[in-house]
Design a protein that fits this description.
Low-confidence stretches: none
Mean pLDDT: 67
Helix content: over 70%
Number of strands: 0
Keywords: Membrane, Transmembrane, Transmembrane helix
Radius of gyration: 24 Å
Order of helices and strands: HHH
Oligomer: single chain
Largest sheet: none
């Protein structure tokens, strides 16, 4: 069976290109998710007046952010 090396190279290029696109897409999704979570945590902590040093608020932090 004769295999043309240029066809093999082209198919490998196509597979590599799609893999790169998929990896970039997942990277973008992960970065967007982390940005969103960071902003929501910042927003909630700013809403709750972080300068007040009440003990109940410090204990309540994890139950507030991760219900």
């Amino acid at each position: 069976m004769y295999i043309n090396k240029w066809d093999v190279a082209r198919s490998v290029e196509i597979v590599n290109g799609t893999n790169q696109v998929a990896f970039r897409f997942t990277d973008a999704i992960i970065s967007i998710q982390s940005l969103y979570f960071g902003f929501t945590i910042l927003y909630h902590s700013l809403q709750r007046n972080p300068f007040s040093s009440k003990h109940s608020e410090k204990k309540n932090f994890f139950s507030y952010h991760f219900p």
